[in-house]
Write a structure and sequence with these properties.
about 350 residues, alpha/beta, Nucleotidyltransferase, domain 5, two-stranded antiparallel ribbon, 12 helices, globular
Length: about 350
């Protein structure tokens, strides 16, 4: 019977360092290959027995996952933020590859989800739209920052309007500043049409997906938010419960305690009032956090969410916590509807959970 093998790969742009261990943790092979499919595929095929492969989530992770997943027993793309062992002791490519193989062998890696091929086009279009949106916002912020740095107030969006630009540029008397801001205006003029094209392409692709159609029936989850959710989550069955989705989306409250137990009359008892620090988990998908918090913020002014928020506030819940509770509710509804394949029905909404 062939024993399982565990391969750790320290991936770089040009070369990849590989270490292979057996089930007992013995290093049985170590090598370096170019970071190319033509070199990596023969490497994994040459190893006998069930092969388990791991590498960290990096720029090449998505590509490498697709390269090797059909030739091995399992691929674990791991989260580098949780690989504390890699920061201990000596640091080097070979050392990192060995440690990754050992962590894989002992089951101590946190897997990063990589979806199927079905939603790849939507994922790429969502990333393009987000990138162009971010670049547009940054350019607009830079334009306003230059005016503010010269003591000029720029309320509203008048500073961006083409018909008023000459008037605004005339206020900049320092040599070189009008040219600098003019180039930023040119950049903004090029980014806006590209952003609109990316948005239309994303929405057009989103209409082809059943998940987007279902999510759009939920109040405040319009075509953009629905496309972002579908592209990011890929499948609702990744999350067994709503609590897992809350944690993934940064909506879960984490608690850090100290001095939780104490000695009383020779016995260990739990402190009734342990010192605790509470807050939302920071290790999350920030795109999903913005989507659900944004939906809750916009929905606070309309039904069916406004009455729910008001009832929470009447119970003494702080406004920000009430909004967080609503964001969780929207996330839970989205997960349920997606799993069941049903459209949103306000009559089935249970506000008590």
């Amino acid at each position: 019977m062939k024993c399982d093998k565990y391969m750790g790969m320290d991936v770089h742009q040009a070369m990849t360092v590989v270490a292979v261990m057996d089930a007992n943790g013995k290093l049985i092979w170590e090598t370096m290959v170019p970071t190319e499919a033509s070199a990596i595929i023969p490497l994994v095929q040459s190893i006998s027995g069930p092969l388990h492969v791991t590498f960290e989530e990096t720029t090449q992770a998505e590509w490498l996952y697709e390269v090797v997943r059909f030739f091995v027993a399992d691929v674990v793309v791991c989260d580098p933020r949780h690989n504390k062992l890699l920061t201990e002791g000596s640091k080097g490519d070979k050392v990192d590859a060995r440690k990754l193989a050992d962590l894989l062998r002992t089951g101590m890696l946190r897997r990063v989800y990589h979806g199927n091929q079905g939603g790849r086009r939507l994922k790429q279009l969502v990333r393009a739209y987000e990138t162009l949106s971010t670049d547009t916002r940054r350019t607009m912020v830079r334009i306003k920052a230059i005016y503010r740095s010269r003591g000029l107030q720029t309320p509203g969006r008048n500073v961006y309007q083409p018909k008023q630009r000459d008037q605004w540029l005339g206020l900049l008397t320092e040599p070189g500043l009008p040219e600098r801001v003019g180039w930023l205006y040119d950049e903004l003029d090029h980014l806006k049409p590209l952003r609109r094209q990316a948005k239309q392409a994303m929405l057009s692709e989103g209409r082809k997906h059943r998940a987007v159609q279902l999510l759009r029936t939920i109040p405040q989850l319009g075509p953009i938010r629905a496309a972002l959710i579908a592209a990011t989550i890929d499948t609702p069955h990744r999350f067994r419960t709503r609590h897992q989705l809350w944690s993934y989306s940064g909506l879960a409250v984490v608690t850090h305690m100290s001095a939780e137990y104490e000695m009383k009359e020779g016995r260990v008892v739990r402190n009734r009032k342990p010192i605790a620090t509470r807050g939302l988990n920071r290790n999350c998908n920030h795109r999903m956090k913005e989507v659900f918090i944004g939906a809750a913020t916009a929905g606070s002014r309309t039904e069916p969410y406004r009455s729910y928020l008001q009832s929470l506030e009447h119970k003494g819940i702080r406004k920000e916590m009430a909004r967080l509770t609503l964001a969780r509710k929207i996330a839970a509804v989205a997960l349920t509807i997606w799993k069941k394949g049903e459209t949103f029905d306000p009559k089935k909404l249970n506000w008590t959970t």
